[in-house]
Specification:
Length: 121
């Protein structure tokens, strides 16, 4: 019915940049908040950033000033632009999208499969 697919992960050097993409598709009537979380081995999942349908953003303290979360409503896509990357940013990054499915009353949160980001020399 609905699919959320992430792309753009990979290996990058400290101080480098990476841009993640997350596209929602399927029987979608509307999309509200979109966001990104990350999880490193042995650590709990951390909310990184989110953006509402009106463009209001929220960022974790650990990445404020380095990451941005733009969205393209026409493409049902949210991005995570990561700059000044640090080894501590190494994690699996997961996208989430609040979607109103065609014919439904309430929004539901859908998650992507995750994409690995490794920051290392």
């Amino acid at each position: 019915q609905v699919q959320v697919v992430e792309s753009g992960g990979g290996l990058v050097q400290p101080g480098g940049s990476l841009r993640l993409s997350c596209k929602a598709s399927g029987s979608i009537y509307g999309i509200n908040t979109m966001g990104w979380s990350r999880q490193a081995p042995g650590k709990q999942r951390e909310l990184v950033a989110s953006i509402t349908s009106s463009g209001s953003t929220n960022y974790a303290d650990s990445i404020t000033g380095r990451f941005t979360i733009p969205r393209d409503n026409a493409k049902n896509t949210v991005y995570l632009q990561m700059n000044s990357l640090e080894p501590e940013d190494t994690a699996v990054y997961y996208c989430h999208v609040d979607i109103l499915i065609v014919g439904a009353i309430n929004y539901r949160k859908f998650w992507g499969q995750g994409t690995q980001v490794t920051v290392s020399s």
